[in-house]
Amino acid sequence: MKIIDIGANLTDPVFRGRYRGAQAHTDDMAHILARARTAGVVGMMVTGGSLAESAAAVELCREDAGLFATVGCHPTRSGEPDKHPAGADGYFSGLRALIDGNRGRVVAVGECGLDYDRLQFADKAAQERVFMRHFELAEATGLPMFLHNRNTDGDFVRLVRENRHRFAGGVVHSFTGSADEARELLALGLFIGINGCSLKTEENLAVVRALPVDRLMVETDCPYCEIRRTHASHGLLPAPPAQALEADGAAWAPPESKRKERWSSECTVKSRNEPCMIRQVLSVLASLHGTGEAELAERVFDNTRKVFFSGIEHSF
């Protein structure tokens, strides 16, 4: 059983036990990675959402052979490049240096794209300007793209279409769009990343059910985007302990969850998603597509390896 989580925000302080600047419990990164591997997660793409965060992602990946980084500037941080001491050119030179100095550990340009749900952080013009710089970066480095799109009224698709010749491939992660939008993205040769936020409503489930399996990838977007009891997808999860894929003869079940104030090394933290919970995403997808989880996992793994790891030595 092999699963790659294409979107794990492991540089978030909550994975070191810090919440809103306060240390609530001990650093439990090692426990998080161990739980992921017990669940069959053999690789994780650590998301870089800024120059500093990308550098932290690369540093984390140096510590574990199963971790790989993306390097980029999230659309909500599109105001950062102009504030860099050397301006936007210096900012993107810094991103380029991270890629060039860590070939084999950096597997994508991003997270980048457009987000019109949070224009209070960066206006449309700034987001588009920074997004365009990522196409330049992808073209210069030959890397695929890790893309973000939220309610952009066709602007995201337009920019990707206009620049599609500049990058080899990529995934639109955490997809929550319509069936029409999905068809447009698929027509551009892109893959679709699915997590708990992609599976909230019955409409979401209908869209995901129609997506071709050979264009799917799975992710947690942890510590966000867990499958919650209020989500339409929750009812598709099997009851414990028969919770997902068979691994070494034993069925996986989600670990017990406790509030951070009652932290235990054996438990996940309530409302803090983590990579092992990708098994729930996979379980829902298998149910929606009427296929076995092991078969689906193999096909999604092959999709991910083809796009992001075809030219990289790894031990998957």
From TrEMBL:
Binding site for a divalent metal cation 2: H148, H173
GO CC annotation: cytosol
Keyword Calcium assigned: no
GO molecular function: 3'-5'-DNA exonuclease activity; metal ion binding
Annotated keywords: Hydrolase, Metal-binding, Nuclease
InterPro entries: DNase_TatD-rel_CS (IPR018228), Metal_Hydrolase (IPR032466), TatD-like (IPR001130), TatD-type_Hydrolase (IPR050891)
Lineage top rank: taxon: Eukaryota
Keyword Metal-binding part of the UniProt annotation: yes
Binding site for a divalent metal cation 1: E111, D221
Pfam families for the chain: TatD_DNase
Gene3D superfamilies the record matches: Metal-dependent hydrolases (3.20.20.140)
UniProt family annotation: Belongs to the metallo-dependent hydrolases superfamily. TatD-type hydrolase family.
Record-given protein name: Mg-dependent DNase
Organism of derivation: Coemansia biformis
